[in-house]
Specification:
Blueprint lengths: L1 H18 L60 E3 L12 H13 L5 E6 L6 H21 L7 E7 L10 H7 L1 E6 L3
Parallel strand pairs: 2-3
Antiparallel strand pairs: 1-4, 2-4
Helix pairs in contact: 2-3
Length: about 190
């Protein structure tokens, strides 16, 4: 009986925390997609120019080589999914990127990823941790729909603790509202 009471108290505490979250400061509008940066793994966006098909198979049979993860011409070298202010829905422009990484996982069952959810600096620490987790979970759920397995994907939220760009403007905030895909061994 004591275990049930403790479990109920823990559940109530968790539920209580989620119901007292504060909303972040009002959005200033402006950019919805951060500017692209240079350098393979940190490039934002999900363009597939110069890549055949979904950017994953390229005529291969069987597993996709891990070298595709580092090829700047391959969509798999892009590792960031950006989000609108106070949102955790994967935008249409990033779906090919999520699909490509899911297909990579599907073709390489031993491969693993960690999805790191991040937010901008606005809002409380608790609110941002929860929002970062929702973003990571949204990407995970999409990857599962595209064929990755549950055991291949781990999610974590850093909230506002790991900004990519320091600053207190919309450009900085837009770069910090993201999920980073980190493949195991990187």
């Amino acid at each position: 009986m004591r275990k049930w009471i403790i479990a109920a108290l823990i559940f109530a505490a968790i539920a209580g925390c989620s119901s007292t979250e504060e909303k972040p400061a009002e959005d200033t509008g402006a950019a919805t997609t951060p500017p692209a940066t240079t350098g393979g793994a940190t490039t934002g966006g999900a363009t597939t120019s110069g890549v055949t098909g979904s950017g994953v198979t390229g005529g291969q049979t069987g597993g996709i080589p891990s070298s595709a993860l580092k090829d700047p011409r391959n969509i798999l070298s892009r590792r960031n999914i950006y989000f609108d202010y106070d949102q955790f829905t994967v935008k249409e422009e990033f779906r090919p990127l999520v699909e490509a990484h899911a297909k990579y996982l599907q073709s390489n069952r031993g491969a693993r990823v960690i999805l790191q959810g991040n937010t901008d600096e606005r809002g409380t620490r608790e609110y941002n941790i929860a929002l970062g987790q929702k973003r990571a979970d949204a990407v995970k759920n999409m990857m599962l729909l595209y064929g990755a397995t549950e055991v291949q994907i781990e999610t974590v939220s850093f909230g506002k603790e790991k900004p990519r760009r320091e600053g207190h403007d919309e450009t900085s905030w837009a770069e910090n509202r993201r999920v980073d895909i980190v493949h195991s061994g990187e």
